[in-house]
Amino acid sequence: MAKIRYVDHLGQETELEVKPGTSVMQAAVNNGLAGIVGECGGSAMCATCHVYLNEEDMDKFPPISAPEQEMLECTTSPLKPTSRLGCQLVVAEGMELTVYLPETQQ
Ligand code: FES
């Protein structure tokens, strides 16, 4: 299993244990977590799964692809160097991760 800690814009934390191979977006949606919408179902087409990572977690995932970068430029909340689309962040066995949710996704 992997552990994802979601911190919303008010600092409220939710920790989820998720199966490896699950994305940060899918785990949030499956658990009814507010703050991630995942409108397109994970195909990097909507930008409603925008999250911020800790800098030290950035290299746990493959680099941002061109389609992801394009979508990140459409997010409603400010784009930061640690911005990613949650649907493109697939966790591996034993991974522990904290993601920060923007104030709004739409
Ligand atoms: S769920 Fe649509 S871009 Fe991630």
Termini Cα gap: 31 Å
Q: Kindly give the count of domains.
A: 1
Assign the CATH class. Answer: Alpha Beta
Percent helix, as a range, is 10-25%
Put simply, the count of helices is 2
Tell me the fraction of residues in β-strands, as a range: 15-25%
Structural class category: alpha+beta
Question: Can you tell me the CATH superfamily?
Answer: Beta-grasp domain
Give me the count of strands: 5
Q: Ranges with pLDDT <50 over ≥5 residues? A: none
How is the biggest beta sheet arranged? Answer: 5 strands, mixed
Strand order of the largest sheet: 2-1-5-3-4
Write down the Rg. 12 Å
Inertia-based shape: globular
CATH topology name: Ubiquitin-like (UB roll)
- H/E order of the elements? EEHEHEE
What is the CATH architecture term?
A: Roll
Question: What is the structure about, briefly put?
Answer:
This protein is α+β, with helices and mostly antiparallel strands and 106 residues long. The chain is built from two helices and five strands; from the N terminus they run E-E-H-E-H-E-E. The chain has a single domain (2-100), classed as Beta-grasp domain (Ubiquitin-like (UB roll), Roll), CATH 3.10.20.
Describe the structure.
The protein is α+β, with helices and mostly antiparallel strands. It has one domain (2-100): Beta-grasp domain (Ubiquitin-like (UB roll)). The protein is built from two helices and five strands; from the N terminus they run ββαβαββ. It has a five-stranded mixed β-sheet with strand order 2-1-5-3-4. Strand 1 (2-7) and strand 2 (13-18) form a beta hairpin. It binds FE2/S2 (inorganic) cluster. FE2/S2 (inorganic) cluster is lined by residues 25, 38-40, 42, 44-49, 71, 85, 87.
